[in-house]
Amino acid sequence: MKLLVASDIHGSAYWTRRLIEAFGNENADEMALLGDVFYHGPRNPLPEEYAPLEVAKLLDTVKERLIVVKGNCDSEVDAMVAPFEFADMAQLYADGVKMTLTHGHVFNKDSMPKNAGDVLLYGHFHTGFVIRQNGVVIANPGSVSLPKEGTAHSYIIIENGEVRLKDLSDGSLIEKEVVKR
Fold first, then answer.
1. CB contact set of 11 (below 8 Å; sequence gap of 6+)
2. Which one-letter DSSP state was computed for residue 84?
3. Model's pTM, two decimal places?
4. Are strands 66-69 and 86-87 parallel, antiparallel or unpaired?
5. Residue 181's pLDDT band (boundaries 50, 70, 90)?
6. How far, in Å, are 36, 43, 54, 131 from residue 64 at the CA level?
7. CB of 141 within 8 A of CB of 6?
8. How many angstroms separate the CA atoms of 133 and 9, rounded?
9. Could you report the per-residue pLDDT of 96-128, keeping only the tens digit for each?
10. Distance of alpha carbon 179 from alpha carbon 164, whole angstroms
């Protein structure tokens, strides 16, 4: 299975179109969104082409292959317009790899959930990275629309036991880690 993981769209129709394009170009089987889908949040600037209802329409085109966890900016109102369900957290098993998906405001590299499995995936901080800590690969896809600290608009691909952080602008590899050594 090939999984594309992204986070922190924050209502940008422009970057959602780019993400769906990358989903197709990667020929991924599933897409996981790690929260903060529609609202930009009071601490963030408006992202390019801020249009939450357009984002909902765009995500409707891939809803059958979409897993979405709730972020700290996602609300009950967001759930009413979303063409998908929000989960508080999710765990996936694919190709012998156990993955925990969360937003990151509660669980992250500094506050690990119990039984995280082989891979912990979270967003929230808008900075993409892939590291290994205490035998667990920890990865943050960064922000699709509002990257911080000079990081790229980015996403993650998980396939064949590798976690690869990629630049959304051109699909180039930023960094990777092998899950099981």
1. 37, 38, 39, 40, 47, 50, 51, 52, 55, 145
2. S
3. 0.96
4. parallel
5. low
6. 19, 32, 18, 30
7. yes
8. 27
9. 999 999 999 999 999 999 999 999 999 999 999
10. 10
Q: Per the structure block, which two tokens stand in for 13?
A: 């129709």
Tokens found for residue 10: 């924050």
Give the tokens for residue 173. Answer: 């590899």
Angle at 77 between CA 76 and CA 79, to 5 degrees: 65
Measured in residues, the chain has a length of 181
Q: What residue type is assigned to position 100 of the chain? A: T
Q: Which residue has the tokens 């911080």?
A: 148
* Residue 116 CA: distances (Å) to CA of 73, 82, 83, 132, 142: 23, 27, 28, 13, 19
